Amino acid sequence: METRAERIASCVLITVSGELDTTTAPELDALINQESQSNPENYIFGLGDMEYISSVGLRVFLAQLKKVKAAGGKMILAELNDEVQEVFDMAGFAPLFEIHTSLAAAKAAAGI
Amino acid sequence: MGLKSLLNEASPQRICWDILQIASGSITAFFLPYCLLSPSTSQQQWDLWITLSVIGLLDAAIQLQTPYEARGEIETSPTKIRQHYYSTWLASDLIGNFGTFAISLMPWAGCLQLLRSSQVFRVLSKWENLQTTSPLLLRICRYSFALLMITNWISAAWLWIGLNEKSEASWIARAGLQSHSHAKQYLMSVYWSVTTLASVGYGDITPKTNLEIIAAILVMGAGVLLFAFAIGNVVAFVRQLDNGKSEYRIREAGMRRYLSFNGVTPETLSRLRRFSDYRWGQSQGVDPNQIIRELPASIQSEVLTEILQRSIQHVPLFQHAPVALRNRLLILLRPQIYPPGTSILEADEPGNEIVFITHGLAALETTEAIEDEAIEFRPGEYFGDLSFFLKEVRNSSVVAKTYVEAFILQRDLFDNLMKQDSRLHAVLQAMASGQSSRNQLLLMAGVII
Which ipTM was obtained for this model? Predict the structure, then answer.
């Protein structure tokens, strides 16, 4: 798995590629924690190249969602592939997140 | 509308009309012989017979237009309905109901009215075929009516003999009943016929004349046959009443003997016995799956929808599914019963099933409560979806706390259905939205089921 973080105005854009599973999820978790230090208002996750997500990966997103909501910010997921989208849909998590099909739409929703 | 309802054999109006026919047939069977032997006929009695005859003729007119069932098909062709009626009940209806009007021509033509009693048998047989009431109860009614009717007719015949013998030689004279009322004479006649038919024979009323002796011989012979028939039927009824349960118990006991012989522990056998009792209470020993499989595919889902109405109204999968998809799911989902204490889903196994509870209580088996609450699943709730959609191995088990009845959606079935019907995806998605908070709770606690 590869991750990359980019700060754009009050937002942080984190792109994830590869498989988000038990072994790689702590790496993403650590990156999110690191970016949180600078107190961004909104988070955008570009998941266009993410091929697989496990329960541990979902937990990272759910835990972050809780924090962002508590701080009054937005957490936006973008470009989920069909398999990943199905996991969010079938587990009932899709309505919890703001999900966009393109990164541009996600950025617009975050006001950047 | 009234006439149309009367032409429908199962309508409440027709059932009321049929009850009237039973009343008419019963009055004829039991009261007519008494009246015919009475020295005088009152105007009220005349009015009664004429009324019953008019009702009988109206019934004949209704029969002539009522569709009938033959080999499971309803025959509605007017010609065939008429032919069917002509070949079955026309003669008895005409003779029975016109008998009243023929009395003025021939006094004994009144006896012809007794044919109206056949209405009782016709209605009871029809109800038995319609299967709206217990067939056993209807058969008991039919046999009881026949027994009482025959006894009454024998009584009437015995009184007729007494009244028509030379007065000093008749059994009425010998019993000192000449000066008694017609009702008393009839009562004693009933008494004689019952004691003779039942082979009691007290001997207080005995046959002396040739005609009486011949009648007594015939009645004694008939008594043997009637009571053998009645006792045989009573025994058959009693056996039928308990037959299903006895057979089920014998089969289950045989299975337990086999298991015990093969080393199954008494505790397990005891649980098995309780499970058998539960299953008997739920399905009376019938395997609904086998019954359903034997039905034509076209009516399988219809029957399933009706018999599982109570169960499926709670299951979100069915609530969100369009009718065609719901019918398909009903046929394909596997119903399952779990006794208390058994695992419904086991930890360390791949998530290949989603379980939809329709009855009972199940609970997540964990050493600690999650956020201070035990995770329980009740009718209308489901589980197994997290490991199923994430394609992961479960790390916790779900155990039945009471008897749990559930539908199981297995992965192979799900994959096939997803290929065949794209609407399933939307149905599952709609269903899952109601599950998000519980799944979130489980996932954050690290529980995958």
Answer: 0.87
